[in-house]
Design brief:
The chain contains five helices and five strands, in the order αβαβαβαββα. The protein is α/β, with parallel strands linked by helices. The radius of gyration is 19 Å and the shape is globular.
Length: about 160
């Protein structure tokens, strides 16, 4: 292999260069995300922008096994074919079947995954429904990270 430019880098310079290219997977303190607890996630939202944000946050938290659906009907169809998901994240307001209606059905499954809801609506009354986690939009990485840590303690 021939290189066009000869560069001699000190190990610390090389580390800094690599680190600058990995910003998306680094925590604010500069430490790499290392997650031995990969979770199989099913995410449901009808808003493409919110999907991109949530997927990016999940990846920043070390979670890359994310399947996306656009409404509760698609979620239930996916779970009926493949009930190996450990976590289902539902937007509260979706067409056809919203997050709460979908959760009400998932609650009765024999093998039920953890279920989170996220919404831009008021969340006060949601705490009594038995959801594992309720996140407010705009979703913050710290909140997702904390919820994933709590979930890891259940295993």
């Amino acid at each position: 292999i021939q290189f066009r430019h000869k560069m001699e880098l000190e190990p610390t310079d090389l580390f800094q260069r690599i680190k600058s290219h990995l910003r998306d997977v680094l925590l604010p303190d500069g430490n790499c995300v290392v997650n031995k607890n990969q979770v199989k996630i099913l995410l449901a939202d009808d808003n493409d922008f919110d999907i991109k944000i949530m997927v990016r946050i999940l990846k920043m938290c070390g979670q890359s096994d994310v399947t996306v659906k656009n409404n509760g009907v698609e979620v239930l169809s996916e779970l009926s074919k493949n009930n190996t998901y450990q976590l289902v994240i539902l937007d509260l307001n979706m067409p056809l079947l919203g997050g709460l209606e979908t959760f009400a059905i998932i609650k009765d499954f024999t093998k039920k995954p953890h279920v989170w809801c996220y919404t831009s609506s008021a969340v006060g009354e949601l705490f009594t429904l038995g959801l594992d986690q309720i996140l407010s939009k705009p979703v913050k990485k710290e909140n997702v990270e904390s919820a994933l840590k709590n979930m890891a303690e259940w295993y």
